[in-house]
Amino acid sequence: MKKIKYFYNTNTLRYEKLVTPFRVKLLRFFGFICALLVSSAIIIVLYNKFVPKPTELELGGKYEIIKDNYNSLYGKVKALQEQLVFLEKRDNEVYRSIFEANPLPDSARVKLIEKKKELDKINVMGDNELGKDIAKTLNNVSARIAYQKESYDAIEKLIKNQGDKLASIPAIQTVSNKDLTRIASGFGFRMHPIYGIPKMHEGLDFTAPQGTPIYATGDGTVKEAEFRNGTGNHVIINHGYGYETEYMHMVSIKVAPAQKVKRGEVIGWVGSTGASTGPHCHYEVHINGISVDPVYFFYNDLNAEQYDRMLKIAATGSAKSFD
Fold first, then answer.
1. 267 and 216 in contact (C-beta within 8 Å)?
2. 195-211 burial string, b = 16+ CB within 10 Å, else e?
3. pTM for the predicted model, two decimal places
4. Are 214 and 266 in contact (CB under 8 A)?
5. How do residues 61-77 score in pLDDT, each as one tens digit?
6. Cβ atoms 247, 233 nearer than 8 A
């Protein structure tokens, strides 16, 4: 039952029935509608701004997956680039040096990269910046691999009829090191263990018990076999073709100057003579009088996995220097 409202009329001094005019009801109705519309608009705006739509959530999830996949792929590409840099360096500084061929200039590699278009089809990814970036990087890697293959094909031709030279080039480890545990110090600057100053370490230190055999790493002629204060009992072998190897700190020497030696022949035994802090063999490789990293020349007695591990050991072993 509808309630009837009354009010006290001071003029008539009576309670009279309260009657609301129609225009007032109409205004109230329109006011309610306006308030409802404004409130609804505010709610919709806030909802659209702060509450993500299902499609946006789905797209956001897909984007994160794409981003994670891109980061993973980009990491692999970066690893390939690092390996290529090493191969290109090894190509120029070792392989081509061995056969007296001119190093490949970087400009030649860059020129080929500009011409190679094998992976251009990946650019169909449209405006996707991640796709464009990875496509560009893969195109670069592909071109460098193709060029490096051409270089190795050229080197393969140089190898023919080079039997004597290959036998003379130092190509094995000077101390038996099948488990790769005997590399104590790599090639490069480090703190000298005796003098306590930064000093270039121009070879590799093979740590081993005193009396362990030391082998010639290539065919050649003994140039020196004597004692010096710094290097102790040491041997220098001239391999010809600009190559020399040096073996230091021996407990005793087996060979004599002018003696011919073959790769793998024992030339002395590990010791700690001269400026040394423990039994080891300091081993150096020189090309035309310049010291180079010996780790590049162990390709005859290491497989690819062992060689990669050897590089890492040599790069991190400088803190264990013995001389």
1. yes
2. eeeeeebbbbbbbbeee
3. 0.51
4. yes
5. 677 777 777 777 777 77
6. no
